[in-house]
Design a protein that fits this description.
Layout (H helix, E strand, L loop, with lengths): L1 H7 L4 H17 L1 H30 L7 H20 L2 H34 L8 E5 L11 H21 L4 E5 L10 H11 L16 H15 L5 E6 L3 H10 L4 E6 L5 H16 L1 H13 L5
Parallel strand pairs: 1-2, 1-3, 3-4
Helix pairs in contact: 2-3, 2-5, 3-4, 3-10, 4-5, 4-10, 5-11
């Protein structure tokens, strides 16, 4: 029963919060461990994000989103420095200082929990029993060709379909999903559909979804297609490594019982991309985070 519960709730927001709560509890009970862990984690984050962001800017150009990781690292460094200062001047800061330390503890614990869950999500190996492979769309070129990120997802879907057929003999159908962006000549679903067929898939094996504008719609619209063909289906979705965890959470909210499959990308994309995903996860669960902030304000009254 416990094993079934854990399997059903793996990579869910609830599981991430449980891990974060355990980390926070240890940090509260052993304050020295908190500052040691915080210093170690912030140093790793700063170095990783600075190196990846510099490489990203050099290879992809000066874009605002390419500096997001640096801003996140700087905010972590400022917050840690403030907490060190507060810890050494407790008599001056008092209760407000405890609130600041608790809030930093919460954000740091959530980030560590998301990082752990995100890492294991990318290593997940779905069972070879799938009826459908959903490929989540992203930007295509002005000419309608798949850019490296989307090509990586589509190729991973092709590889999984091949692996499954070799291992079990079961053929899976593809559901490439994605609408048409402002500067795109066709829908992402159409572009992937043509790519899949040109790379060996039969036309009847590809059911394109061509209206979705975001990951939520990807999941909802693809679920409707899959359920209309096979009501009790087994499904896997494919997306880029840093996007797997949040996509898994979205699929659960959309009622899609699917496993996640990770495609790789250039190493310098991952840190910046995952930071955006982390912020996206927090914004998805606004109410839960408001409650967590309130608890962070109240707990110092009793600790």
């Amino acid at each position: 029963m416990i094993g079934r519960f854990l399997k059903r709730n793996r990579y869910s927001y609830g599981m991430v919060c449980t891990i974060a709560a355990m980390i926070m509890l240890v940090n509260i009970l052993v304050p020295k461990l908190f500052f040691f862990m915080a210093f170690f984690e912030v140093v790793i984050i700063d170095i990783g994000l600075c190196v990846s962001s510099i490489t990203l800017v050099k290879r992809e150009g000066f874009k605002r989103k390419n500096f997001f990781g640096n801003m996140f690292a700087a905010s972590f460094t400022v917050a840690l420095s403030l907490c060190f200062f507060i810890e050494n001047n407790k008599q001056f800061f008092g209760y407000p200082g405890k609130i600041i330390e608790m809030l930093f503890n919460y954000i740091l614990s959530m980030f560590l929990a998301c990082s752990l869950a995100g890492f294991f999500a990318t290593k997940h190996k779905p069972a070879y029993d799938k009826d459908f492979i959903i490929v989540l769309g992203c930007s295509i070129s002005k000419e309608g060709r798949l850019l490296p990120l989307l090509r990586g997802r589509t190729n991973r879907a092709i590889k999984f379909a091949w692996e499954q057929e070799v291992a079990t003999g079961k053929q899976a159908k593809y559901i490439p999903t994605g609408g048409q962006g402002k500067n795109e000549v066709m829908s992402e679903g159409s572009a992937m559909e043509m790519y899949l067929i040109s790379h060996g898939a039969e036309e009847y094996e590809v059911i394109g979804e061509k209206k979705a504008a975001n990951t939520w719609e990807n999941m909802v619209f693809s679920k409707k297609i899959a359920d209309s063909l096979i009501p009790s289906n087994k499904t896997v979705f494919v997306t880029t490594n840093y996007h797997v965890l949040r996509s898994w959470m979205i699929s659960k909210r959309a009622g899609l019982d699917a496993e996640g499959l990770s495609s790789t990308t250039k190493w310098y994309f991952w840190p910046n991309g995952f930071i955006r995903e982390f912020v996206g996860i927090l914004s998805m669960y606004k109410l839960q985070n408001i409650i967590a902030v309130i608890l962070c304000i109240l707990i110092p009254l009793y600790v």
